[in-house]
Specification:
Helices cover about 25% and strands about 15% of the residues. Belongs to the peptidase S8 family.
Amino acid sequence: MHKTQFSPVAFLAGFAVCLLAAPSFAGDFHAGVSGKGRAGTLTTESSSSGCPQNADGTFCWMSPDIGEAWASGYTGSGVSVTVVDDFTGEMEELGDLGHGPQWRQHGQWIAQAAGMVAPGAKIIELDYSEPVPLTLEDGLNVINLSYALEEPVSGYQLEQSIVDAARAGAAVFTKGAGNESVAVGTPTEGNIDFLALELTGTQSTIFVGALEHNGTPENKAKLASYSNYAGSDSEVQNHFLTVGVDSDKIGLSGTSVAAPVVAGYAAIVGSKFTSATPTQITNQLLDTARTDTLVNYDPAIYGRGEPSLSRALAPVSIR
């Protein structure tokens, strides 16, 4: 199996990509099985953290827009976020999203990030080694993919079903752009991400790159040095967003950490616009993205820009 996670690399200098082949479910979410994944409430430890919680309930790595959305009652309620990832590998990544330093599996970090951004959403874990098709829940579904597939999708039942669902616009798909400092879809060292290739051009997919921090007009952000960028393909550019991954604060790096933030945003937007389709939610995030928060904005680098929850939530309704 050649599925590679997009690292968050914890307290390390490099950005290693680890090969994993995990046979079954695991994790510390302590919940029953829902559908084909594991759903539940994220645990909160009482240990001290270098990323303290803010007065509005958000944490140091989050945009202020998140707290404003929560205060308005939009937390992702009624939306299901399925994190397809590694939940059976070693707990080899040390980081701190606000509950104190912890060792976690790659998938656990991704699910925790999505659940912290959208605490009202149902978080479902689906191990990417499972030979099962994607199962969608009732209501709006958001699917997070923070890994690459280095073999044709047709050989994998799960990934083929993911691509089929994306082509049908059946869910919002957030896909980590990758950590090779190249345009999405570019081969590196003889390998290519077939999952990214197959998702390019699908109506409800968002590729997500990583910024060095959340940007503001006064403190603009630039793309992290490791992050893949949008490139010259207009189909990628038009479905590419970037969000901050402040490694100095959380000890985690990679577009794998950026993607679940956008997954959480999609859930929050979906909890307001409850009758909107996945494609409408996708387009709302893309169409309201900011470019004035980015250093030397260029669509070939940043795609549509940095998502803005406040702008995405502003209308009374969307079409």
